[in-house]
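Researcher: For the annotation table, I need structure tokens for Ig-like domain-containing protein. Please keep the output clean. Sequence:
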Amino acid sequence: MAAGTVLGMRVTTNTQTLEIAEGDTVHMSCIYVTDAENMQALDIEWLRVDALKPVVMYTDGEVFTPLEGSNSRYNFNGDYLNGDASITINSTQMADDGTYICKVKKHGDISSVEVTLTILVKPIPICSLEGGQPKINEDVKMKCIADTGTPEISYTWTRLIPKSPIENANVLGELWMKNVTLDDSGLYQCNASNRIGSNGCTVLLSVIPKEESAKSGSNVAGIVIGVLLLVAALGALGYFIFWYYTKKNNSTRNFPNDVRDDGSSPPTSRPPTRHTDRFHTTDFDDDDYRDEPPPSHSPPPPTNNPVLYTNVFPLIDKDGNKPPSERVDYVSIGKSDEDV
């Protein structure tokens, strides 16, 4: 117990040094004893060493709280008129940290005592998983850092689901895990503690199976293959269109027609035309119109000159009947075989 005495006044306290958690209520004692019987001239004052104004005081029969006004967190909590000038501070803050003086004055007798108040702050950790959720056989780093809190701060990691302690966390709150497996998945908690309390945070670790990684890669490969197949299909379609129209144009140019050299349409029947120097014309009678090669007296079309068929009829109609006798004419363009 500390005490201060001047003449007939003696002030003591049993809480010379206090530590309190931020947000809690603290009780600071100040007990005085005086030989004077007249209490009308009593003055009590609590002030902070680094403050210009008292935090709470009694003088001239009234209580004042100059530092915070009528809603002050500082209040007398004892019988201050009869020797107990103790006070309380509600909802303590970091700004309340410091040294206080309790001073009592009575008829010129003055005595005081000091009380040191330390505000302690619980650590508030923040948990994180670096690099995102890992794949099988990758390394993992989980961090638990408390930027606020009264030193010294210690860190403890626990696996909540399934529950088991972890021994390899370091003083910085970092948890390293190498070559993780699916069994390492779970909910992890970090507790940051100091001498007044602790707070915690959690990290959910979900190890990604190889199958999902392979599936992701196969999806990409499937997309690439699909694009290549689409390009190949478009190329084949383009080639088919080109081939179709090329063949159609060639067929149009080579399609047999009934137009003669003089531009007039041939009659339905005419006498047979004899062989000339540059033109070969073949005519068939009804008896000659059959699925057999032309008779030997009708020379076949030449193979060394272009041939223009001018009048072509099928040998058998669509019903399988032999059509009426018609003429099959061709014209050899260029020199005949006899001219060569």
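Researcher: And a one-line annotation?
Model: Confidence is low (pLDDT under 50) at residues 255-292, 294-298, 336-340.
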